[in-house]
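Give me structure tokens for this 128-residue protein.
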Amino acid sequence: QVQLVESGGGLVQAGGSLRLSCAASGLTFSRYGMGWFRQAPGKEREFVASITWSGSITEYWDFVSGRFTISRDNTKNTVYLQMNSLQPEDTAVYFCARSRDSYLSSSVGNRPGMYDYWGQGTQVTVSS
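Here you go.
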């Protein structure tokens, strides 16, 4: 049974920080790229960050670059998203996902259709 379980969301004031975790089980984790997406009410799901299987290459959406950091621990089958300097505009449900065609690849992708397994999401709310 494939599971991606996000945790670490919550309510934080603007300028604060949160660290999201995504624990994977039932799938090959360490050889695939992973990504974080978010979806605010009434908006489409949008790319936040991705990381290659080895962790050597990361990609960020411009709006979060310099504030968010994606990382992974393949020994724990877990990918993380450290979020600093949070703004009210960052309020959304955050999802982790596995990149379908990124097996041992330096390319991960930034479109939802390029990912095959998804977690259920964790709510992040930033108050002003």
